[in-house]
Amino acid sequence: MTDFPVTALRSVEIGTPDLSASIDFYTRVWGLEVVAEVGDKVFLAATGDDFHVLELKQSERSELRKISFRVRSVEDLADLFDKAVQAGCAVFRAPGPADAPSGGERFVIREPQGSVLEFVHGDRRKDARVVPNRVQRLAHVNINSADIEALSDFYRTVLGFRLTDRSKMMAFLSCNNDHHAVVLADAASHGLNHIAFLMPDLESVMRGSGLVIDKGYPIGWGVGRHGPGDNVFAYFIDPMGVVIEYTAEVLQVDASYRVKGPDEWVWPPGRTDHWGIAPPKSDACKKAQISIGFSGA
């Protein structure tokens, strides 16, 4: 296995113009649980061992405010901070105690294309449970980039991620045995494409998606099985326009995995996934995937 200083994608923070509506959706519909409220932030947990996987904060518009990663050691935290500064990242918070209820040591930077990244070591964990049809943890975050190669280079050379696959439109990056924790999507401007939440299995993706539909939210794309990563997917749009995904069965890889390029990730005409049975992605989903910017951008 590759030696990764970053060990996991832990959580994301979303700004929402209607905090109450977002809390209602992510608890009543999506299946997360409020575990803390600190100041103007609400922290929501899944069933895994992360203290929280989602932070919600009132803002003027829907926006991606922060992506949080867990780091292997205090030494790695210091080394990553030095590398980020040398790479020209803006420093929002130097290494020190985290102010979130999950605790730990952390630093916060803005990478050159505009997303805010937090790196944490020693944060609180909780007892993990596997609950059918309920989210376990985050699976990946997909970021729109007008220069994928530059951002991919940043994640690999500065943060220690590994490229696992490169399709025509996307780069897939890993920091552990999951095929990808970060995906970079070719787009006209930088921003959030979508956030993926890991379910226990295929059956949970199917039943969980049915429960979301029962509550009035249609599938934007899926259910299908992706090419790179081989994971099952179902895409939805939350009430504030953020695209979110239920996924499961993410391919597990190690250092022997062979990176495949765009010429190898080619589908037959009219097909966009392995199964080829999902309806085309909805226009609403396509629009939402390029509509969410970064905080402060």
Structure characterization notes:
By secondary structure, the protein is of the alpha/beta class. The chain folds into two domains: about 5-120, Roll (2,3-Dihydroxybiphenyl 1,2-Dioxygenase, domain 1); about 135-265, 2,3-Dihydroxybiphenyl 1,2-Dioxygenase, domain 1 (Roll). The chain contains five helices and 17 strands. The strands form two sheets. Strands 1, 2, 3, 4, 5, 6, 7, 8 and 17 form a nine-stranded mixed beta sheet that branches. The mean pLDDT is about 95.
In short:
With 297 residues, the protein is α/β, with parallel strands linked by helices.
Q: What would the principal axes of the Cα set say about the shape?
A: globular
Count of helices?
Answer: 5
Strand content: 35-45%
Under CATH at level 1, the class of the largest domain stands as: Alpha Beta
Q: How far apart, in Å, are the first and last alpha carbons?
A: 36 Å
Q: On the 0-100 scale, what is the average pLDDT? A: 97
Predict the CATH topology of the largest domain: 2,3-Dihydroxybiphenyl 1,2-Dioxygenase, domain 1
Question: What CATH architecture label of the largest domain applies?
Answer: Roll
How do the strands and helices of this protein lay out in sequence?
Layout: E1 6-16, H1 19-29, E2 33-38, E3 41-45, E4 54-58, E5 63-71, H2 74-86, E6 90-97, E7 105-110, E8 116-121, E9 137-145, H3 148-157, E10 162-166, E11 170-174, E12 182-186, E13 191-198, H4 202-214, E14 221-225, E15 232-237, E16 243-248, H5 283-288, E17 293-294
